[in-house]
Design goal:
single chain; 262 residues; alpha/beta; 7-stranded mixed sheet; 7 strands
Length: 262
């Protein structure tokens, strides 16, 4: 189980924290750096050579163009896919930042070993033959990153914070957020996406998290917080397991834009 396999990495994270491509899409070519356009980014993701049909099919539910626009990603940015797993967001970031940008795809050993190495195999295939030339793969713990501090414009993690918080508590979540914050430039942004849980729900079993708890942890880590609603789904009452056949890919998800102070 993912949450069990995260134990070693998160334990190291808590103890540390508690101590003091592909070629650029045409819509970016020659233009000054500005926040990626939603419609143009959707088109670039759809038309990207080599991007799988399976990846493209998930765009409708995940809304990557809207997410990256909300987070303020720009052509030429340095981006960081935190706990990247098989790299779905890694490829979206690679296309969006273009050849003048850079994307770090980070996974700890335990995520690469999950499900008989499924994430390792998927990411290896995704990056084969230098297809995403602006991506740097980092098989590293969050506590031992080779990313230069203060060098990242936009980081993102999808559906991971609940595992850390629910299994290891608030301080683990704050430690995780603090470690990512250290990689960001002043004014840099960390996007956090997760399944919404009810205050009285068994969120550990359901793989969910209360939005208020995520916001509190982010503020404790020193971020300012803005919330997006692009992945909201009022039809989800937050009582079902996110892997259920009727809910998978359709949950009510919070999107937090966490900004590091200037």
């Amino acid at each position: 189980m993912k949450k069990s396999l995260l134990k070693i990495s998160v334990f190291c994270l808590v103890t540390t924290a508690l101590l003091p491509i592909q070629a650029q899409a045409n819509h970016h070519a020659g233009s000054p750096a500005k926040v990626v356009d939603v419609a143009a980014t959707r088109a670039a993701l759809t038309e990207a050579p080599g991007r799988s049909d399976a990846d493209k099919a998930r765009d409708a539910g995940r809304k990557p163009a809207e997410i990256l626009n909300f987070l303020g990603l720009k052509s030429g940015d340095t981006a960081f896919d935190v706990l990247a797993s098989g790299g779905w967001y890694t490829e979206a970031l690679s296309i969006a930042v273009g050849p003048k940008g850079k994307v770090y795809a980070q996974n700890p050993a335990i995520l690469l070993q999950l499900r008989e190495g499924a994430n390792d195999k998927a990411l290896t295939a995704r990056l084969a033959d230098n297809r995403l030339a602006n991506v740097v793969r980092l098989d590293e713990e969050i506590t031992a990153l080779s990313i230069a501090p203060g060098s990242v414009d936009v980081a993102i993690t999808g559906l991971n914070l609940h595992d850390i918080y629910n299994s290891y508590g608030e301080q683990a979540a704050i430690g995780f957020l603090t470690a990512v914050k250290a990689t960001l430039k002043p004014g840099g942004v960390f996007g956090v996406i997760d399944h919404v849980g009810n205050p009285d729900g068994d969120n550990n079993a359901l793989h969910r998290m209360e939005t208020a708890l995520a916001v509190k942890a982010a503020e404790s880590a020193g971020f300012t917080v803005e919330q997006g609603i692009m992945l909201a789904n009022p039809a989800d009452d937050h009582t079902g397991n996110v892997f259920g056949p009727d809910l998978r890919g359709k949950t009510d998800r919070f999107v937090l834009k966490l900004t590091k102070p200037e």
